[in-house]
Specification:
DNA binding; 11 helices; binds zinc ion; Rna Polymerase Sigma Factor, Chain: A; mainly alpha; 243 residues; sigma factor; Sigma-70 region 2 domain protein; 69% helix
């Protein structure tokens, strides 16, 4: 139950504690300002401005979820983030795959722009985190509808290798997409989240099971992150054995 009089600082604390509704309120409160700032930084390109706003908002959410981010001045924090994001956007545009075309990622929930932006940004980060060869394979497969033969020809590898590359690239994309939903600041928490993602995606983490369980037992934040990851993973295609 939120009212307009709740201070930004208090909302930030609530987001740090895992409350996504508090983030939605922060978003609604500051998005118009962020957009105005972005339009000023992107020389009138509406698409670039929207990208810069969503990047800045994602950065804010990730920082808060990681226990960092602004303590007070949220508008000031966002203005700096928007300017940085706008500078990155132009450089990135030419190598970006339109998020809507990424294969097998869940459709964003209707009517929730925060979720939609967040999901899109996670997908984009996951795509950019792939090796160049995997990015090319996913792009050819998903955007251009190429088969293994043509992908192999383009990359100079045999069709079975191309087929396996596409499979592994798509799986890496899903794991990366999941992983970008949580961003703990602590290195041990980050390691544990990597293993939780691996385990959710069906990779063996048996030798780390004891360490992961013991961490989850004492870290409430990671237990909550684990729950979020399981929810997101439930919307993804499940892994079915390596070809
Ligand atoms: Zn932890």
């Amino acid at each position: 139950m939120y009212v307009e009089s709740v201070e930004d600082a208090e909302l930030c604390e609530q987001v740090r504690a895992g409350d996504s509704r508090a983030f939605r309120l922060l978003w609604e409160r500051h998005v118009a300002m962020a957009r105005q700032c972005a339009i000023g930084c992107t020389r009138g390109s509406a698409a670039d401005a929207e990208d810069a706003v969503s990047d800045a908002m994602l950065g804010l959410l990730q920082a808060l979820r990681g226990g960092r981010g602004p303590v007070g001045n949220v508008p000031g924090y966002l203005r700096v983030s928007v300017r940085r994001a706008a500078a990155r956007t132009a450089a990135r545009r030419h190598r970006e795959l339109p998020v809507a075309e990424l294969p097998d990622l869940p459709a964003s929930e209707n009517g929730c722009r925060v979720t939609a932006y967040f999901d899109a940004a996670c997908a984009r980060e996951a795509f950019l985190g792939l090796s160049e060869q995997r990015r090319i394979a996913v792009r050819l497969f998903a955007l251009e509808g190429k088969g293994a033969g043509q992908i192999g020809e383009r990359l100079g590898i045999a069709p079975p290798a191309a087929s396996s590359l596409v499979y592994r690239a798509k799986e890496a994309l899903r794991a990366g997409y999941l992983r970008h939903h949580v961003s703990p600041a602590d290195a041990e928490c980050a390691d544990v989240m990597d293993r939780v993602v691996a385990s959710l995606r069906g990779r063996s983490v048996r030798r780390h099971t004891a360490a992961v369980s013991s961490h989850l037992h004492r870290c409430a934040a990671c237990r909550e992150r684990g729950r979020q990851l399981r929810d997101v993973n439930a919307g993804l295609p499940q892994r079915v054995g390596v070809k």
